[in-house]
């Protein structure tokens, strides 16, 4: 059930905790007074519909307040956006004159039209104008707010009555929604005490409004078990245009083996083929041996139609000894009268089912991504993991970690993970399990099998952590404490260097990017490690700012807590083969995101547009050759052609261009224009794509 709120986890701000959201998720306060640009957005993208919401502008701390507030919509990475700016009345990006200025106390309305890809802004109920969003229609967009100074806004997505009327043809963003549960002929609601409550009488709109369930997420998982027979989810909405609704229902995962355990299964097949006389059904089950199924005593019945056969023989092989039938401790007593020849006893045995616990932990210097079990023989080993130094043991089954009673060998046998299951676990499965792990091995060697011992060649842990972060040397104790020192360089997105302490004490560090934690990502310091500690860390371009300087800060301290830091600023630069317009502005980023479009304006059928200059810049860091530029024809509407040319005059039209050797930071230029056939059909907000490929120069 849709509920729009401001999500503090999606904020973009230049200082820690600069965006504060109230418990209801509707009022936002920006506390940053350092002239940074702080942003926040809603938890859900806007629907493919015509929707309206409002935001009331407040001031905070008696400062500039609403004058510098941005309100509008944007993509999840804040790269593409459009906003109505309060200072003088402007439209961003581009600082274009738009509407009138707004300030504290004003109420800004926003009406988004997905179908025309436009947004209309209102100030105190009066339209300030309608503009195209400039954002591709297939890219999700969110309600956003931003400010350079302390301020606050309170959003109303429709959960309460709007101050001004909703524009004609639009609906409020947050629908009024309620839910009732129908079981048989009885309707139920879920009350504030966490109990099911029967609805009496006829079901009316008033019943939904006053007694309906506002949020199905509040219903505890165990409470759904109250219903033993199928139920209907009865949904109410005040949106007159809604004709369908989707529910996400999570059930406890299950397997056929779990459903059919202890049951006899019959498979019935139907076919209309008159020639088919038999069917083949393949099933996959856990490994077993006949002894487990048949027990100690079996009768073998033999039939033959050979008249001369008068007797039959059976040959069987088994690894068995009468000693297997002795379940308690026993003594072997021997006697001999040969005093010079003492008896020798050789006893061979297989181990009973057992659970072996690792006596120490593996300490994880980073997030655990995978566990790989390398084995050469036998499938009889299974595994449990402990994340609390052996106090409890867990297995990952049916999408969650479950505790296993290790005092019950049968429980271990059924619930422990096979080597295939444990090898399928990924980083997200280990989240919030701690910074250490211990292995438990369940071994099940059966006496009826040939002597094939359980053997594990290796257990490998894949951990995401800093590269070569410590060097261990012989330790000595010094009474004198000296402050740790740091020598770092930052180049091409990589920090290289070393932290040292002359008294050979332990040191630790953390890295902040634009005042936000970067490594470790929770803002804590690394573990204390003997100096010197090497730092070899890549800074991801996804975390950099490209519109202003970035601040990189490495804080470090020694065992005694003395803290110092190293800091630098750098400009974020894209890497790759980058497209730029004639003014040098980038058209796309490293990751393929659109920064700016070549705008050809409105094109009429039968028209050829004016050509525009585009520049390709080699920012790969090495020379390239055989560069091929071509038009992606699959994305072009019927009757529309995109033409390329190396030169503007004369414009020699082609659909691809090749270039030779291009050195680092060297540029190549070309021109592009659009030709529309006289019979070309209208396409609103049409786009085209160019593809580029190259080889690294040898």
From TrEMBL:
Name its species: Paenibacillus peoriae
Q: According to the UniProt entry, where is the signal peptide?
A: none
The name this protein goes by in its record? B30.2/SPRY domain-containing protein
Pfam families, per the entry: SPRY
Which SUPFAM superfamilies does the protein's record reference?
Concanavalin A-like lectins/glucanases
> Sorted alphabetically, which InterPro entries does this protein's record hold?
B30.2/SPRY, B30.2/SPRY_sf, ConA-like_dom_sf, SPRY_dom
User: Which Gene3D superfamilies would you find in this protein's record?
Assistant: 2.60.120.920
Question: B30.2/SPRY domain: which residues?
Answer: 1-162
